[in-house]
Structure formats: structure tokens, C-alpha cells
Amino acid sequence: MVPGTTTAVGPVLFKAACPDCRARVELSAGSLRLAIGASHRKTFYAFTCPECGVAVRKPAGERIVELLTVGGVRTLRLHSTF
Prior knowledge:
By secondary structure, the chain is mainly beta. It contains one helix and six strands; from the N terminus they run E-E-E-E-E-H-E. It starts with 12 loop residues before the first strand and ends in a 5-residue tail after the last strand.
């Protein structure tokens, strides 16, 4: 790649697995939601399985948060109440 040039990139797709029906699916950024909580235990991503329709929620570590954020997934910051 020549410095100062850009390349066209198509839509980003994320691979995920449904724990209910065990389907392996590819999801667009618009099909995923990322919730960042006060701790790693409260940080997760969620989607609806396109195969069986089940709502799926999975933990998201730092690397997953980074990939989803860069990939354009909508992010919700959760605040704890005291």
C-alpha cells in the first residue's frame, strides 16, 4: 500500500455462535449491541440469532470491545447506581 492512499473496505462482518441452536453466524455491526459496564463482569455484547431468534448475550473482554467498537457496533455505557 502506498502511504497516503486509502483502500475501499466493504461492510464488516463479525462471526458469532448461538449457544441455543449452535449455529455459527456472521453478523453486521448493526446486528450487534455492545454494553460496557463498570467492570469486566458487566461488559457484554448481544444479538438475536438469525437462525433461531433467541436473544444471545455474551461476555466481552478488552479485545472484543476494541474489535466491536472499531467495527462500528453501537455501544451503550452502563452506569452503576449507588
